[in-house]
Write a structure and sequence with these properties.
With 146 residues, this protein is of the alpha+beta class. Helix content is 37%, strand content 23%. It has one domain. A six-stranded antiparallel β-sheet has the order 4-3-2-1-5-6, sandwiched between helices.
Length: 146
Amino acid sequence: MATPEEIESCMRSILARLAPCEISVGQNDSENQTAHLLLQHDCYKSAFDHLIEKGDRPGLFLVHGQIKPGGIDHAWIELEEQDAVYDSTLLRLYRRSCYYEIRGATSTHKYSYWDAMRIHADAQHYGPWHSHSTVPHDCRNGIIPV
């Protein structure tokens, strides 16, 4: 298991690689954000919590997918109107295409607000859901396989 120092070093490396993709949302305290990164170890829960915080908004999706290296399961938020990704484990907003390229991200399922609420209630966990859900993965119910 990685030490807190190794985790912090890894997170700083990821942040540095993604820096050109970052969308500035105003003045922030990056020192506090970096310290908070160590607490954000469950991407599924933190992405789901962010979706709840933002509420039911058009073009806002909870995304389950994978990132490289190694095809690691991961969750993030997509904001279609802004063509952006919010990574709740990094606490940053990124240009979508740049994020996908640098993280090697692959989106496997997008969930609307209400579908995420329903599936979470049924599954009783934060994800991934696509392998545990009995809900068909199609556009009719807001779950968009990619």
